[in-house]
Amino acid sequence: MMLLNPGPVNVSDRVRKALTLPDMCHREAECDELIQNIQQKLLKAFVPGAESEYVAILLTGSGTAAVEASILSSVPIGKRVFVVNNGMYGQRMSDIVASQRLGVPELKFDWDTPADPEKIRTALKHHPEVSTLAIVHHETTVGLVNPVNEIAKIADDLNRVCVVDSVSGLGGEPIEVAGSHMYVVAGTAGKCIQGFPGVSFVLIRKGFIERAVKFPKRSMYLNLANYYVAMEQGRLPYTPAVQVCAAFDEALNELLEEGVDNRIQRYASCAALIRDGLGALGMKMFLPAERQSNSLTTFYLPEGLAYQDLHDRLKERGFIIYAGQGHLSEKIFRVANMGALKQEDFESFVKAFKEIV
Fold it and tell me: pTM for this structure?
């Protein structure tokens, strides 16, 4: 089955085979070495040249676990969080903040509109009580990319910490983590890195996590300071998903062999194939070309064809697409091109789509 949803994704045989490595105790040196290898590869992939300035913290949980840990671990006592919301995952950040009553009024943009850096600058100046800015890199709600590099620099200039949800961005969209002074970036194995779901991670600046050890602990399992202190002693504080980590390690090997920039370009080429192919069939895209991501495209539904019918017909042919969300659920469908897939796979998808419409 070809998974054209934005995670979980199709993985390679190499990654799948890594799940069958011999059983391993999480308190033995072999597991410590596995975790440390993953951490080093994450830094090499996403903060090249600045590995000594960051740490990579692994969590057993979905990308949302990494996002929640990032936000709740980054707020000093008496300070607040400012959320930029232009999609379902920006809204999820707002919900996380609201659960702890840590927020100020969020800054909302329409789902088809990238966040405006200058409006964010103005809002931060009006909220001196805010220490933390939270924003989504790639909003898979519609496949929109926010200008997080520029926004992170603004936050840093104003002495605020930028927390970035790049769960579906890392490995698929350009991002300058160190160069933009991003303090905290959440990611996951099961999207553009092409591993399995169940393991997520946070890239965090060393100087900041050393300060955050003294921040209020708003969670136990999701407190990044707990992980950092345990890591300094050589291991994770809680039992990791060992086999999923082994597959993640192999997925990172593949990513580094391919090269992050090359993967981004591969995704962009596959997205172009989908857009050209469905466009030739009369499908209209929700976003203009300049706002689209490299790994997901949102189309309006064909006239007279409901999403469930389209989904079921494509599934019969071996393809899984994704529904729209919120107020767009009856109007659009989404096609992701993440994962260990080749150009001919997407050519087959376009052919199947043509047969249906």
Answer: 0.96
